[in-house]
């Protein structure tokens, strides 16, 4: 069980001499970066969800509507449609919307 495993690890760790000292987050960059990494990844995940909106916008976009329809089954020139997204030479085509920079 987990409790037995936990107690064995505690016994094992107690065989080593150690002293726990507090280290400020600014001085311990590695430990400070771990929670920040989680925050960054969760933020990125939330922003990536907006990409699903792109699939719906291709059909009405003046730049990509015709190309999007022509790529429904096969590649059209340098354009490829994959998983509902339109790519030009391995770059994502972004319709004219708020996601466009």
Describe this structure in words.
This protein is 45% helix and 10% strand. The chain is mainly α and 101 residues long. It has one domain (2-92). A three-stranded antiparallel β-sheet has the order 1-2-3, with no helix packed on it. The relative contact order is 0.09. The mean pLDDT is 80.
Topology:
Elements: H1 2-14, H2 29-48, H3 52-57, H4 65-70, E1 79-82, E2 85-88, E3 91-92
Antiparallel strand pairs: 1-2, 2-3
Task: Give the gist of this structure.
This protein has 101 residues and is mainly α. It is 45% helix and 10% strand.
Describe the largest sheet.
3 strands, antiparallel
Principal-axis shape: elongated
* Spatial strand sequence of the major β-sheet: 1-2-3
- Give the helix level as a range of percent: 40-55%
Order of helices and strands: HHHHEEE
Number of strands: 3
Distance between the termini: 53 Å
Strand content: 5-15%
Structural category: mainly alpha
Low-confidence stretches: none
Radius of gyration over C-alpha positions, nearest whole angstrom: 25 Å
Name the average pLDDT.
Answer: 80
The number of helical elements comes to 4
């Amino acid at each position: 069980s987990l409790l037995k495993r936990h107690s064995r690890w505690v016994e094992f760790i107690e065989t080593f001499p150690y002293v726990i000292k507090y280290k400020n987050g600014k001085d311990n960059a590695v430990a400070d970066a771990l929670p920040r990494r989680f925050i960054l990844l969760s933020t990125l995940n939330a922003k990536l969800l907006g990409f699903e909106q792109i699939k719906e916008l291709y059909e009405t976009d003046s730049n990509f509507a015709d190309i999007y329809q022509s790529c429904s089954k096969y590649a059209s020139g340098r354009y490829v449609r994959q998983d509902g997204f339109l790519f030009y030479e391995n770059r994502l085509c972004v319709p004219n919307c708020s996601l466009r920079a």
